[in-house]
Amino acid sequence: MKRVIAGLAAAVLTGIGIWLLRSELMTVSIQQPEGSYTDVVLEVSIREDEAVREEMARGLISTCRLLVNADVVEDTFVTVDDGVVAFRLRPGLDEFDRRELRGCLSDTRVQHLLADVRTLETITPEGDDSSR
């Protein structure tokens, strides 16, 4: 009888723990309003020839954007400063996708390329800043 009660208590505690952590465990895609976009500023350093930095950064961005439901807006990829690039994704990203993109861009996915996300900001058409 004690084993049954202990097993039942363990099952109940496990269920309560999962219920309390469900938001962290769930990957829910939230529809962003039409016209929303996400601006990204990325600092890129390279151990190879500086002439290929932009090409390698574009490769990293192209790979990472496949993880989220957004595309790089044509003609928005610009060099802001030496080693700093910016681009825009459309539609805007929800919180989960922003975390996913930030993690991917921060990983060394392209050999000898290190990237640091300076800004990752989603803008909605109402002008609300949904997150950074």
Question: Can you summarize this structure?
Answer:
The protein has 132 residues and is an alpha+beta fold.
Topology overview:
Elements lengths: L1 H19 L1 H4 L11 E10 L6 H13 L5 E2 L5 E4 L2 E7 L4 H12 L6 E11 L5 E3 L1
Antiparallel strand pairs: 1-4, 1-5, 2-4, 3-4, 5-6
Q: Which descriptors would you attach to this protein?
A:
single chain, 132 residues, alpha+beta, Alpha-Beta Plaits, six-stranded antiparallel β-sheet, elongated
Molecular structure report:
By secondary structure, the chain is an alpha+beta fold. It has a single domain (37-131), classed as 2-Layer Sandwich (Alpha-Beta Plaits), CATH 3.30.70.3400. Helix content is 36%, strand content 28%. The protein contains four helices and six strands, in the order H-H-E-H-E-E-E-H-E-E. It has helices at residues 2-20, 22-25, 53-65, 95-106, and strands spanning 37-46, 71-72, 78-81, 84-90, 113-123, 129-131. Strands 1, 2, 3, 4, 5 and 6 form a six-stranded antiparallel beta sheet that branches. The longest helix has 19 residues, at 2-20. The termini are far apart. The model has no long low-confidence stretch (mean pLDDT 84).
